[in-house]
């Protein structure tokens, strides 16, 4: 399939070609990326070191923060460096690796969000059997299945992309390698491939979003039987999850559930779910979660005490 491929590298146009705006892009997205790394790193370290955060919910939150970090890293560093360079070329193999990694960690995040919804459903609707159903072994198996599922999804995407011949032009009107911009550059009829790609990514996003929202409707409906204190705590957690789901799935559904046509706003919408959501997630889960905030305070107080003792 690759024998007919005459393109060895692609040119990424980025968000803008204007020098001043490119410097603004560099500063803002460098700060966003550093904020993403810091926020998610704090959550990862806090969950790993705190005994109070040993429940399945925080087990899944650990992997959500990990997937957020990797998802952002698959796109942001290259975008930040390219904002300072005049010649933004990316080799064919690097482009394919970026497609694979972005879709791998993006789909992993989707599957982790589904696992978090399952966890909340069991915790609220089956409280007496929660620890037996959501044991550490079960949670580990579910996360392993999520990793395998994300890998299968990404392999399908990359194999479909590699089946396309690229013989020029090689200019990608985007800031990272993604499927829709690459389909526009293929020198063959991409109708069937596009349908397969849309049915893969688009169906995963849409079906997962509908499943998640339906599950949270059931969960919120079941809260009427809980005490006022329990209802307040569960409601706070579920609202955090629902906000994350809407912020992540809204842009993804817009991008991946339509034919291979691009709109001027596509790049900004892609920025929202590749850069924005991984930055916002830690803020949502820390600002709305008293247990995480308390665990972070204890972690830093212990660190300050140990530093002073030295």
TrEMBL record:
UniProt superkingdom: Eukaryota
Membrane topology: Multi-pass membrane protein
GO molecular function annotation: G protein-coupled receptor activity; olfactory receptor activity
Subcellular location: Cell membrane; Membrane
Main location: membrane
Transmembrane segments: 24-45, 57-76, 96-116, 137-160, 201-223, 235-256, 268-287
InterPro entries: GPCR_Rhodpsn, GPCR_Rhodpsn_7TM, Olfact_rcpt, Olfactory_Receptors
Key words, A-Z: Cell membrane, G-protein coupled receptor, Membrane, Olfaction, Receptor, Sensory transduction, Transducer, Transmembrane, Transmembrane helix
Domain G-protein coupled receptors family 1 profile: start-end pairs: 39-285
Record-level GO cellular component terms: plasma membrane
Keyword Ion transport among UniProt keywords: no
Pfam families, per the entry: 7tm_4
Record-linked PANTHER family: OLFACTORY RECEPTOR
Protein name: Olfactory receptor
